[in-house]
Specification:
Blueprint: H1 3-18, E1 31-37, E2 42-50, E3 56-64, H2 67-80, H3 85-99, H4 109-115, H5 128-144
Antiparallel strand pairs: 1-2, 2-3
Helix pairs in contact: 1-2, 2-5, 3-5
The structure holds zinc ion (ZN).
Residues 37, 40, 42, 65-66, 68-69, 130 line the site of zinc ion.
């Protein structure tokens, strides 16, 4: 990755971690889960509303930890709001490939571009768990976290 792009991506990550989107707890959440990454000490809790059509009507997160874990959670909530559960799972799948440096061909060009900010993580295997924490927590919330 060229130096200029790397710096730009770092800016985006820092901006998300300093000014997280959709931060807080949804009081009327239908699903929730908490995640913890013991390798780094990151914590993320996700609350969301799945509507009758299986769409993510709203989603929030709260957390504490390194910039990557919090920025990833912030980006995730931004991207997942308004998507169907199936789309959300496909997006997560693509993201998990991307941060491991694998081919993420399942992603739409727009999603690929947004998530590319996190693609540099694949050079730092220790940080992959920071980047994926929020996404795993989302999955747990949807699958097992009905309130
Ligand atoms: Zn971390």
């Amino acid at each position: 990755m060229d130096q200029h792009l790397r710096e730009l991506y770092q800016e985006v990550i820092l901006d998300h971690s300093r000014h997280p989107r959709h931060f807080g707890v949804l009081p009327d959440a239908t699903h929730k889960a908490e995640g913890f990454n013991p390798l780094c000490g990151d914590k993320v809790s996700v609350t969301l509303i799945l509507d009758a059509d299986g769409k993510v009507a709203d989603i929030n997160f709260q957390g504490k930890g390194c910039a990557i874990s919090q920025a990833s959670a912030s980006m995730m909530t931004d991207m997942l709001k308004g998507r169907s559960k199936t789309d959300a799972e496909a997006l997560m799948d693509g993201f998990l490939h991307l941060v491991k440096g694998e081919d993420a061909q399942g992603l739409s060009p727009d999603d690929r571009e947004t998530l590319d900010v996190m693609s540099g993580i694949s050079e730092f295997p220790m940080r992959v768990k920071c980047a994926t924490l929020a996404w795993h927590t989302f999955k747990n919330a949807v699958e097992e976290g009905a309130t």
